[in-house]
Structure formats: C-alpha cells, structure tokens
Design brief:
This protein is α+β, with helices and mostly antiparallel strands. It has 2 domains: 3-65, no CATH class; 68-210, Nucleoside Triphosphate Pyrophosphohydrolase (Alpha-Beta Complex), CATH 3.90.79. It has 5 helices and 9 strands; from the N terminus they run βααβαββββαβββα. It holds the Pfam family NUDIX. InterPro entries: NUDIX_hydrolase-like_dom_sf, NUDIX_hydrolase_dom. Residues 66-209 form the Nudix hydrolase domain.
Length: 252
C-alpha cells in the first residue's frame, strides 16, 4: 500500500499515530477533531522526514474533507506579454498546460515554498525576493491525484509571478521534472488558457507592472545618487586643491 510522509516533531508523531490508529472508528465530533488535528499538522506528500507515514486510505480521507494549501508560480517573458506553462502528466488538469506548484509544507513560508516548487519542477533557481505575490485563487477540480476515486481536489492557492531577465533559447533548458511532458509560451490574452490560468494572470499583471516600475525607479535613484556623490567628491577635491594653493601662496 502506498503511503505518504509527514513533517512533524516527536509530539506530532505521537498524535498522528494515535489519530491514525483510531481514525476509522471515530464518529461525529471526534472525527471532525481528528480532521482538524491532521490539518494543523499539514500532511505533506513529498518531504523526506523520517519513518512516520500516513496510509493512502487515511490521506484520501483528509483530502476528501480538508482544503489543501498550495503555491503556484507563473513564469513571464521580460516584456510581460507571454507566460510559460507546462503540460501536466497527472491529474488534476491532466494534459493541460498549467503553472508549476504544489503543497505548502508545515512551518514553510509561502515565498520559500514557491522557490522550492520552482526548483523542483523546473531548472530555475531564484531568490525569494524575485517572486511577486499576485493574490489567492481558490481551485476546485472534479478529480485529484487519486485518479480512480471520487475524491476531488480543493486548493487554496497562493499565486506568485516570476519575470525572466531574458528569453531562453531552448525551453528544454527550463523543464526539470517528470510531472510535465511539454512546455510552451502562451500569449497572456490567449482565451484558450484554462480559466484558473486566466484568473492568475489577471491577478499578477498589475502587481508585476508595479514591481517592474518600482525596480526601475530604484535603479534611477541609485544612478542619481551615484552621480550626486561623484559631483560632491569632485567639488571636495577642488576645495582641497584650492586650500592648498592658498596655503602655498601665503607661505611664499
């Protein structure tokens, strides 16, 4: 039976073991409390964190009843006119060009999670400050990673944007994992994009423009400050030279 790792301390392990052992026999309020405990522990699918694991059946129950916190990253061209999307190999939205992303881990900051997922699913390694938070999109899908079940995905998705400094000569230089079979650039106004993609682009565009404008303003201010500093140093040198000449004349 497939199982899923969780990120937890020793106390967390005890709670998970206790909940897992009694979960099937819980009813009513007790079962809701169990769901709440698991939600707080933030069960993760991909963290190498020791030997404590949840069974597939237990994780199915969690996904059936608890929304999942996720992060996504949309990659944009330098002119902000195109976005790079990846063709998903697995459900949900199987065979659809979509943004990269995944689950938020326990105690992980949103921005750090976005950096991690970007590096896991692409070959891009960026600093957290390079990502721009666009907002939150609620995603509800009719299916989930459990392909042959009635369980659907319900994600609370924090959306980040990344603007590349230059266009890559080969998209293959960016694709970095086996979760995607292809990648392609799409116009941001392409009406064929998945509705959630259109929503995310809509949220990100003004934030990216604002971020770019602020960046350009800082560059200009730095250049202006540098120019002013140079002028001040030049004037200071002239004053020192003038003072030395005055001393020499007086001494002569």
């Amino acid at each position: 039976m497939r199982s899923f790792p969780i990120s937890c301390s020793s106390m967390h392990r005890w709670v998970v073991q206790a909940v897992g052992a009694r979960f099937r026999s819980c009813r009513g309020g007790t079962r809701l409390l169990a769901y709440f405990c698991l939600c707080l522990l933030d069960v993760t699918l991909a963290a190498p964190v020791g030997s404590v694991r949840l069974s597939e059946d237990l994780y199915k129950d969690v996904m059936r009843n608890v929304p999942i916190s996720t992060v996504d990253v949309l990659i944009f061209s330098p002119d902000l006119e195109k976005t790079l999307l990846f063709k998903r190999q697995n459900p949900p939205v199987q065979h659809v060009y979509y943004s990269v992303g995944g689950r938020l881990l326990k105690n992980e900051r949103l921005r750090h999670a976005a950096v991690r997922k970007l590096s896991e699913e692409t070959k891009l390694v960026v600093a957290p400050r390079e990502l721009v938070l666009g907002g939150v999109v609620e995603e509800v899908f009719s299916d989930s990673m459990f392909a042959n079940s009635s369980i659907n995905s319900h994600c609370i998705n924090s959306v980040f944007g990344l603007v590349l400094h230059s266009m890559p000569s080969n998209i293959g230089d960016i694709v970095g994992d086996k979760q995607h079979t292809d990648a392609a650039w799409f116009d941001i106004h392409d009406s064929s994009l998945h509705p959630y993609m259109q929503r995310k682009i809509f949220l990100l565009q003004p934030k990216l423009v604002q971020h770019y404008a602020a960046s350009q303003m800082r560059t200009l201010e730095d250049a202006d400050t540098g120019s002013t500093a140079r002028q001040q140093r030049k004037a200071s040198r002239k004053e020192r030279v003038k003072a030395k000449k005055a001393v020499l004349v007086k001494g002569g």
